[in-house]
Amino acid sequence: MSPQAAKFRILLVLAASVLALSAAAQQIPHTEAKSLTNQPIVVPVPGATKPLVVIIAFSAKGGDDSGAWNKAFHTRYETDPRIDYVELADFQGVPSFFMGMILHGMRRSVQEPERSHLAPFFSQEDTWKKVVSFKDPKVAYVLLADPSGHVVWQTTGPASEEKVAALETAILDLLGHGNSHGVN
């Protein structure tokens, strides 16, 4: 085989690998919700130019982890115009009779700035569970997506110094200030 044919073959293999990786990448499902301040929240953000951090809980216990992530996250990025973030709480299947009481309690207990970023959602639970590789309802799931909504990093469980540092590294990488890639 000639050197040019070998280079062409290598390029074809690399192109196929890139396409396979792109197809395997998880996409954040289009979700519309209202924050606890009644502001609309849409993810992924249409026409976004910023990375998006999504903190998602599938139970009240997972919400405890979300609160810890929020504390670790919002102190660094609340006013950073380069980052979007949202916390989602899964309420699919909760009877409407209880929802009013639950939301009232959440609005009383959750303070700003978290309140404007926290939104209950009522559909697409199975899709979200697939995206986060759901295993345990008692933990929070944290995703970092590029502006088009493709997940580039994720973790589960409570915030720790190591996980927060890994998230920051992934954010800096997306912003062009780092050199790490991957889903953790």
Keywords:
184 residues, two-stranded antiparallel ribbon, five-stranded mixed β-sheet, disordered C terminus, Glutaredoxin, 6 helices, 7 strands
Structure commentary:
It is a single chain. The relative contact order is 0.18. The termini are far apart. The chain has a single domain (26-174), classed as 3-Layer(aba) Sandwich (Glutaredoxin), CATH 3.40.30. The chain has six helices and seven strands; from the N terminus they run H-E-E-E-H-E-H-H-E-H-E-E-H. Helices cover 43% and strands 20% of the residues. With 184 residues, the protein is an alpha/beta fold. The chain is globular and about 70 Å long. It has helices at 3-24, 60-77, 96-109, 114-117, 125-131, 161-174; strands spanning 31-34, 40-43, 52-57, 84-90, 118-121, 140-145, 151-156. A five-stranded mixed beta sheet has the order 5-4-3-6-7. The longest helix has 22 residues, at 3-24.
